[in-house]
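User: Please predict structures.

Assistant: First:
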Amino acid sequence: MSKEKVHLREKVLAKGMIGFYLDYSVKGKRKQETIIGLQKFVKAKDKIERDHNKATENKAQEIRNNREQEILANYFGETNYYKPKTLFVEFCEMIAQSKNDKTSTQSVWMSMIYQLKKFDRNARLMDLNEEWQERLKTHLLKNVKQNSAHSYNNKVRTAIKEAVSRKYIKDIRLVKGIPYIEVRREYLTESEIKILINTNCDNQRMKEAFIFCCFTGLRNKDVRQLTWNDIKTNEKDTFIYYNQSKTSSLENIPINDVAIKMLGKKGEPTELVFKNVKCNAENNNKLAIWILRAGIRKKITYHCSRHSYAVLLLENGTDIYTVAKMLGHKDMKSTLIYLKFTDELKLKAMNSLPNFNF
């Protein structure tokens, strides 16, 4: 197998630069392959040139490693599995297509791919070294918000791991990810929801759907797709059975009298419960006017109804694990965030402490 080893060679070029080429033998035939586009300084004069030389040498070594892996893969008959020249964009698109198009996950993948094409649409799997990953992080942070950059970079890391798992490439070292910045999640208090119920809205059905979501936690897309067939009533209670759009999981949650009242007159089984509640510019404007009309000075979006539901449950004594189930969360971390917004719980915890007389 020593004959298959790939050597990284250097060659002095004009203007004080050094180029690289690969020198190896395959089945007794010697080959030399110039690495195009990689050059370093013969004598680095300052830190910038020294850093350039180091990055260039790392890139050249990465290419050497990949070429040797490719030759070994061919030697052992693994050609069908080892595909380091596959374009990373195409590999990501393949993964995105495998996602359920009804979930938000696919849309995140497609948004990431859009940024990837802007950054380096010609990058191959064999090119995704640490230096490339750092440049991508810089691009994302310059072009999208911090938390979007965090999400897109995580998808890139997932794709690289998937490429290794599928044997397209050998293992690649991943650089540190982009940190997530916690953002304020606006919500309505119990008293504010009461005020809204008694405040006129220019779209009455949208108002009823919003209040319904404050007491059920449904996302806007889920409430728009809700049919009368999804509403089940037994002798005592009423439940909603629906497929959560984000995760495609089947959920069932009980609903209280306020939510039942918001449903209105029952229609045909396949008929939509709430109509004309789509998130568009017109309805978003009516929602904003309704909030202002109620004297509430918060930036409330439709999704805030879901946040309000979570906080209502917690402040009325529901344990965190039940709240997670009611919200359809698969990861407790998503639910634990709401604990930070419940001042009522903090006050109760503080008041539960014993007092001592000194």
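Second:
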Amino acid sequence: MYMYIYVYFLDTAVGFTTKLSGSYSGISSIIRGYDILYNGGNAYNGTVFTCPSPGLYLFHVTLFTDTQTGGIYIYENTKRLFLAYGGTGDQHFNGASVSAALLLHIGDQVYLRPFGQTHIYDESVFMGVKVH
């Protein structure tokens, strides 16, 4: 009985973790994940998370960059929400993180766009998980 419940939970979990990398120049680009480590529910397609069931979701992005004024925005549908800003005006390695708890409905989309010219190192991560 306990094994069945455990397996059931794993099969119905919704969430993803992906590594990020690349150079982006402009807010019109959507940042692409290049190495999806986990994709429970198959709701993340490598660029966009599409909500498969309504509920509370937690998203987090960690940026590692050497760009002087770089950053990553979290978007919900067409609305720009939060910025992880890694630019300090210094071209050495900089880091930033931002998280967002969002109440989503079926079909809502969450994705990332760059803030200006941004070089993203592959230690950067984007993740999301359904909390409730």
